Amino acid sequence: MNHIHTLAIGSIVVGFVVLGLKYLAYHLTGSVALLSDAIESIVNVVTAVVALLAIRWSAKPADDEHPYGHHKAEYFSAVVEGVLIIVAALSILREAYFGFLAPKLLETPWQGLAVNALAGFINAGWAWLLISRGRHLKSPALVADGRHLFTDVISSVGVVGGVGVAAISGWAILDPALAAAVALNILWSGWGLMRESVSGLMDEAIAPKTLARIREIISTKAEGAIEAHDLRSRHAGRMTFIDFHLVVDGSTTVSIAHDICDRLERAIKQEIGDALITIHVEPDNKAKHSGIVVL
Description:
Transmembrane segments: 7-26, 32-55, 75-93, 113-131, 152-171
GO molecular function: cadmium ion transmembrane transporter activity; ferrous iron transmembrane transporter activity; zinc efflux antiporter activity
Largest sheet: 4 strands, mixed
Strand order of the largest sheet: 3-2-1-4
Membrane topology: Multi-pass membrane protein
Distance between the termini: 44 Å
Domain Cation efflux protein cytoplasmic: 209-283
Order of helices and strands: HHHHHHHEEHEE
Pfam family, one: ZT_dimer
């Protein structure tokens, strides 16, 4: 089992622990705001399961029906997470509405707040781990899960502070107001998550900084060639796809041209990790004099 699978399984375990703590906090207080926090944790557990399934699917090797692999499966996971976040937000808004209609004072608020704060600390540590490791392992599913958890942490901080104020002041209406604020916050988070996932599904190019670095590598490592042009890129999960045309002198042998391509592939993969690189070799009469000049 690789690191990505281990982290995905860990998210499920952490999700169940946090869900249990947050529901206990709601049970101790009767707070609608803390209930909203617990509802979001239910989504955390479900999305962690979806992320694990997507990660396992994306790790499958290429086959006849999917010759470029299954890497995009992780983006579908992130889209599902975004949809579930929106569903959770609507459920929380429903609870907040009934709370506005019949506000009530909280029961034993401090014990519940202490339990909820503990759940928030656990979530914060795990969210940081998922985002940092997800970026390192180039896993959109892990990064999406980590960002969702971090949004949950921010919501929890606001909820704990607000419920504390409500308990001290006796303003019962503040409790459903906080729940509504949590719902709006996670709605915004869900929209952002879906927007980023769609960019991957639409074959968006890699980051300009990375693309500039690839152009630099081609310029400095393609000794023996003349120029490169029509450089294209896209990303799909952990995999980056790059293709370009490489112009060489018309008298260059196939063997020498192949060696130049191998050198370029090694240099690019050393820079960006997992990549599928396609290089189309052309004679010098195909030069466009508008691409990447080889130094």
